[in-house]
UniProtKB/TrEMBL annotation:
<protein>
    <recommendedName>
        <fullName>PTS EIIA type-1 domain-containing protein</fullName>
    </recommendedName>
</protein>
<dbReference type="GO" id="GO:0005737">
    <property type="term" value="C:cytoplasm"/>
</dbReference>
<keyword id="KW-0418">Kinase</keyword>
<dbReference type="InterPro" id="IPR050890">
    <property type="entry name" value="PTS_EIIA_component"/>
</dbReference>
<feature type="domain" description="PTS EIIA type-1">
    <location>
        <begin position="37"/>
        <end position="141"/>
    </location>
</feature>
<dbReference type="InterPro" id="IPR011055">
    <property type="entry name" value="Dup_hybrid_motif"/>
</dbReference>
<dbReference type="GO" id="GO:0009401">
    <property type="term" value="P:phosphoenolpyruvate-dependent sugar phosphotransferase system"/>
</dbReference>
<dbReference type="Pfam" id="PF00358">
    <property type="entry name" value="PTS_EIIA_1"/>
</dbReference>
<keyword id="KW-0598">Phosphotransferase system</keyword>
<keyword id="KW-0813">Transport</keyword>
<keyword id="KW-0808">Transferase</keyword>
<dbReference type="InterPro" id="IPR001127">
    <property type="entry name" value="PTS_EIIA_1_perm"/>
</dbReference>
<dbReference type="GO" id="GO:0016301">
    <property type="term" value="F:kinase activity"/>
</dbReference>
<keyword id="KW-0762">Sugar transport</keyword>
Length: 163
């Protein structure tokens, strides 16, 4: 170990079971009906919650395989060990930004842990460009007979267990 290794900040991840989901960012967790996009508010893609971020870091909501990472960074999907598919969509219509303001840290196909940094988003730039920054977490592919019960809505810290 070299001298500089002492100064590197090691990311410490919460110890989260394979069954749980965590908050993808710090901010306000809101019900689907309060999301200003019909696809998400009517839960057309699956059971949905939203976050109004107060920080620029987006983390993995669960342990699993990062099956999809959009090249623009605006969305990604993780397959949990039990088969559940979880979609994270950052902002509304942000695909139109073509990756501007998004920096990815993990590539498609990687194994990820709940709370691991996936993206940094310049939410000020996203808002300045006229986009809503509400970030959605969707149980896009539920497993039969599994109940997905989220904790009460309100302020959450990044990596706090929500399911």
């Amino acid at each position: 170990m070299g001298l500089m290794d002492l100064f590197k900040k090691k990311e410490t991840l919460p110890n989260v079971s394979d069954e749980n989901l965590v908050a993808v960012c710090s901010g306000e967790m809101i019900e689907a009906k309060n999301i200003k996009d019909e696809m998400f508010s009517k839960e057309m893609l699956g059971k949905t919650i939203g976050f109004i971020p107060t920080s620029n870091e987006i983390v993995a909501p669960c342990n699993g395989t990062l099956e999809v990472m959009f090249p623009t960074g605006h969305a990604f999907a993780i397959r949990m060990k039990d088969g559940t598919g979880v979609l994270v969509h950052v902002g509304i219509n942000t695909v139109d930004l073509d990756g501007k303001g998004f920096k990815t840290f993990v590539s498609q196909g990687s194994q990820v842990k709940a709370g691991q940094k996936i993206l940094n988003v310049d939410f000020d730039a996203v808002k300045s460009a006229g986009y809503d920054i509400t970030t959605m977490v969707v149980i896009s592919e539920p497993v039969n007979d599994k109940e997905y019960l989220f904790c009460p809505f309100g302020k959450k810290e990044k990596s706090e267990i929500i399911l």
